[in-house]
TrEMBL record:
Name the UniProt record assigns to this protein: Tectonin beta-propeller repeat-containing protein 1
Any single GO CC term annotated in Swiss-Prot or TrEMBL for this entry: autophagosome membrane
Signal sequence region: none
Comp. bias intervals (Polar residues): 436-449
Entry keywords, A to Z: Autophagy, Cytoplasmic vesicle, Lipid-binding, Lysosome, Membrane, Repeat
Amino acid sequence: MTVPIKALQVPTMPVSLLWAVDVYGRVYSLSTAGQQWEQCHDAQMEFKRVTAAQQCCWGIACDNNIYLNVHASDLPVRYQEETYENQRWNPVDGFSDRLLPSDRWQWSDITGLQNQPLDNFRIPSDSWEWEGDWRQCCSWWTPLYLEAHSINGWTYAIDFPATYTKDKKWNSCVRRRRWLRYRRYKAMDTWAKIPPQQTTLPDPFSDISCGGWEINEEPRGRLSMWAVSLQGKVWFREGIYHHNPEGSFWEEIPLPGEVVQISCGPGDLVWAVLWEGQLIVREGISRDCPKGTSWAVVDSPSPDVGATHVAVGNNVVWALTKDNKVWFRRGVNSHNPCGSGWISMVGEMIMINVGLNDQVLAIGSEDRAVYFRQGVTSSELSGKTWRAITVPRDGDRSHSSASAGSLQSAGCYFCGEVRAQSVVSDVESDTEKGSTDGTSLLVASSSPESFVDAPTDHSDQPIETPKPRIPKVTSDSFISELVSDRDPGKTSREGVAAGPAVLEDESLPGEEEIKAPCVGVAISPSQSGGPLDPQWSNVDLEEAQGHLVQTGAVVDSADTCSLSSVATYTLAMEDPYGADEHPLWAWVSGGGCSVDSHSQLSWFNCSMNTSSMVQSVQSMSLSVTPAQTAAWRRQIFEQLSERTKREIDNFRHYEQAIEKSVWVKKGTMQWWRDWKPHKWIDVHFALEQFSGSEGNKDGILFIYYNFYEEKKYLHAFINEVTILVPVLNDSKHTFAIYTPERTKQRWPIRLAAATEQEMHDWLALLSDSCCDSRLIQGPPSKQAIWSLTCKGDIFVSEPCPSLEAMPYPTPCDQMFWRQVGGHLRVVECNSVGIVWGIGYDHTAWVYTGGYGGGIFQGLSSSTDNIYTQVDAKSVYIYENQRWNPVSGYTNRGLPTDRYMWSDASGLHECTKTNMKPPSPQWTWVSDWAIDYTQSSVDLVPLWAISNKGDVLCRLGVTTLTPAGSSWLHVGTDQPFKSISIGAASQVWAIAKDGSAFYRGSVSPQSPAGDCWYHIPSPAKQKLKQVSVGRTSVYTVDENGNLWYRQGVTPSYPQGSSWEHISNNVRKVSLGPLDQVWIIADKVQGSQSLSCGTGGWDHITVRGNSMEPPRIRLPSLTAPAPQSPLPVSNMKVNGDAVGC
């Protein structure tokens, strides 16, 4: 049985996007690393709302059509169309397209039930394009040893349908071959309309929500898309995945009532809001049934006020009621999607959304700003406080600078009054035509003659400004409340009473003339002077805020060659840059925004009054003369010198206290007691770290416990700790601390923290302390030794010169190992610092030079060269049955039989229910399924083996480009399973039948060589792994025996015979100086050594080119030497090394 499981380790926060829509229908995105909203300028219409995932963003436009924006990536979106050509043999024509009436179509799908001729295939929309023409799927993709049997791609069988083979037999009466054609999705980073299906939907959509990407990883990029129509029906989009981002068709989902809004989380949570204010929850969502099976009704958070909006995440549900109150649903998880109860939260919002990692975003009901919920962690899902996102938009800053520049270029400042009669018709016409900005009106004077002397009889009268109000936007419908159907016959007083905004129901009585900050009688319909695109429509606020700028106007860009100018009037209550209004948001989506509790965001540091501050600084700088500037600088320098003398120079004779500091961190944990009966007991844990007078750091661990009401303690020195390993435990967050003595005893110090985050914090802190005590900083060196545990965790050790010094090498249990973020199955390196790895899903990874990652953040991790790694592996358990004459094969075995559900050895019971993921970073992504295939893979820096056994050579690998450029396929006559390259380009490999091969004529000029030389394996043994050093070749067979190849010389690199070295060997690794390291198998006490950590599974010392010091043993008669023999430099892998 097999279960693929997935581990997601995020060493650093990747750059992702937060999407939002303002009340004018414009779409903006905000990067997690950015500090301003970027407008989607390619959108040619207004949008109502959007819903985002990491790879794409969906939206409903004002034309009621759904649009898709797929993010561009290095991997193109390609879809493979296929059809099968079928032929039958007859005695006259041989194989031809003359089929029997009962046969399948000449061109069909794989089942033969659907007619699929080549000319019937069409691209689904204008967003796709064909890549080439149809071609036969023939022998280029087949393995080399099957190539002779595949002629033009035909496969043969006795009849339709039957089992097809590549061999043509005497009774092969039918044959078929597959034709392929690829189409590529070309509409990347732009909004593309989703094509309507064959049957037009009865009504347009009013809400959409995407999610479900964590339900199933196959096919890659799969999404669940839910939509709500205006009639309250719910629809599900089928067939959305990476190769088909648009999906296939809509399917209606039965409902218990009319729905107004729906929300889908990354997992299996789907909630919706009914028209009556109740909520419904979709149940039965699984990998095999992403649409679910039934609905469950949940009452509104408030019995008197119905719900209007709901948002779900992985394990959270947030809701809003009609009074804009915020509610949090407790007890929600995959097993209980309905939760257990509501909790009232602080704040009043009109819209709420849950992003990745259960982070919450909302839009305030009063100021219409986007708020981010701070303090959301896995242990505190409700968060702590709301914080407004105060970054500007991309057009704000440039707009204000252009306005100031156009004022100065005009050479004059405008003041006076504008007659209402002269501007009203132009204001109304401009309002109805709209503008590309959608937030301001443009008043321009085309020549100096258009200036009019305004009367002054009303100059002293104050202007009555209406109270600013913002229209309410509900989740049911917001765009209709924002559209203002103006009457062209409005009076002039109504047209300008509230500034540039035209109000339908409110006007300012009593005044025929309105004072304005500039004079002008001509109004341009657009900034370019031409008519606007009819696709665009200006959506103004129905209850806009009246706010007249009485101190002056900010002028937009104008032609510097004339005296014309443009004055911009804001509609909002606050003006961030003096040109555009305070942004009013209508919708936000964080489904593609990857933010966690440790993310450092720059969304809250931008002041909304930046423009006024810049203007004040500019005005202040205009009044400061150069003489005043020089005096001011001199005064500051004198004050700084005085302060330095007062605070530093007068105390130089004192000893710096920081040189001998003691720093203590305490906490409460549980400790697995050393003596019997073993059990968890509560202890106090303390780390005491101190620094000496020379700056060296060290520390001690203390564990305080009670033994028969007597207080005792256990301690360990930091410089004696050799490795810190997280331990898998069903109910506790535990980790193990190893020292050389405890490694020999096979009994580490095991501690359990209260939460997973606390465990990660302690592991990161202890790892930093261990590195500080050993003066280890930064990334691993080129000579580092890399190793993997059985759980896939990556560890690295820095070799010391005495590590392999003879005759007294450093014991392996004294090596210090530090963890590196990531998860691999195989890792290999060389002495120039190139490190490659293979994940459990057979994906190749290259080490980029970063360090830390994973749980190691802050100073213990680099800020760049850290990337996200996703891995998947399969867990196998075996179902065993015994045959009996009565009932056949059953699970009733004999008392001496193995367990009915066991591991491969049959010694350990492994059932479906008691199998747990190997570590807390893993999650199950599928149900149990029968496995019919198995594959293996191995990797070295320049040569690799695919999971199908093909041999590949990587070209272009250098220290500057460790990832290389391309793969070169190397032909073989059978699949391989292990490969290794040593000095002088010696390439050895192991085939799946257990025999060895040597690749001849491999050189830098010919990296792939020319031919394979078969090397017989040892008698009655099948080899499984090979490792090549400078002059040595070692192999390991399937029985755990270690073999050495004798007679390997430069003139005869194939060697002459095999010599048995040892048994009980799991893996072997040879260094560039012929160092031999192994991982021992079946060592006494090794099972207790792992204690849930997994034990060692792979090691590579191929990067350790450090020569051990040569020590001459003292003779009994001759005097002892005064110093060791000098060590000369040598070259390893082309690089000079030495000690």
